[in-house]
């Protein structure tokens, strides 16, 4: 899908997630066909802002709810600080039997919720 746009001056990165017989997989794929496997990624023009939140809050022993909240905070921070990012947090959780939509929340509401602790 992305290969058809190679050499056209576009810049993009995607996260691809799934589950196979080895367990969960998370991959970053860009417009140069670079594919990286890892435990966490952030893509897009606001990703450096998201990484700041994720790097400071990530722990190996996080609960699922704590991970949701960290993702929500990272996306909110990136969207707030980057003028080209969107205004909604869409958060999904990939599980062995499929995915679930965790939330779709307006960033302006989340900013007010996080203002004291985050900004």
UniProtKB/TrEMBL annotation:
GO BP terms, alphabetized: cell differentiation; immune system process; proteolysis involved in protein catabolic process
Keywords annotated in UniProt: Cytoplasm, Differentiation, Hydrolase, Immunity, Nucleus, Protease, Proteasome, Threonine protease, Zymogen
EC number: 3.4.25.1
Pfam families: Proteasome
Subcellular location: Nucleus
Domain of life, per lineage: Eukaryota
Recorded GO CC terms: cytoplasm; nucleus; proteasome core complex
EC main group: hydrolase
GO-annotated molecular function: threonine-type endopeptidase activity
Record's catalysed reaction(s): Cleavage of peptide bonds with very broad specificity
Purpose of the protein: The proteasome is a multicatalytic proteinase complex which is characterized by its ability to cleave peptides with Arg, Phe, Tyr, Leu, and Glu adjacent to the leaving group at neutral or slightly basic pH. The proteasome has an ATP-dependent proteolytic activity. This subunit is involved in antigen processing to generate class I binding peptides.
Protein name: Proteasome subunit beta type-8
Taxonomic source organism: Oncorhynchus mykiss (Rainbow trout)
Taxonomic lineage: Eukaryota, Metazoa, Chordata, Craniata, Vertebrata
